[in-house]
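User: I'm writing a tutorial on reading structure tokens. Could you give me a worked example: one chain, its sequence, then its tokens, then a sentence or two explaining what the tokens reveal?
Assistant: Sure. Here is the example chain.
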Amino acid sequence: MFVLLDAVDYPRSGSGGMGSWSNRVRIAIQGEARWTTCPVRRLPSGAPINAAEIDDGRPWRRKMIATLQASYGKAPHFGAAMALLQPLIEQHETNLAAFNIAAIKAIAEHLGLATRFQRQSDLPHAGKATELLISLVKAVGGDAYLAGGGAGGYQQDELFQEHGIRLVNQDFVPLPYGPDEAFIPGLSVIDYLMWDGWPATAGERA
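And here are its predicted structure tokens:
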């Protein structure tokens, strides 16, 4: 079960900036990891992610498709990847959370992932930081929480045990894919789809 945190405060970078992992991803552009962004309209401080609206006053959808063409046009799975990604980029959805969730679900299904998805806003929840996570685990009937990297700065590990929830640290190490000279760890799944395309190919090399 993957709970999508759509009701937490919209994360910001810089002073009042709107750039975050919610509206941008990293892909390989000219051999380097660079951001490609979906612009969003400015939100007041403390507004939740599900209040963010995409700014379609800019031609970002056309620009993103052109960037993928220029960056990955020669990748072996470009055609199959774009058959999946282009309709997701062009979907007529202006709410950022809904846009992201639709893309996440479609890509997960394409990759054969059996994960179930649930929006935070559709679940009973309370508290902040660790207490919020615990309430969400309980809301979906879970008995363990998978913690991603970088959680140590705000997460209170001992609280999970106090509530009878097992804490599992992700400790993810990326498996290289595609040609050695093109592999850059930490990029969007878009990069994987372009170079490898299907889960079976990675499994055969592992």
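What the tokens reveal: Residues 201-206 have pLDDT under 50 and may be disordered. The first strand starts at residue 2 and ends at 4.
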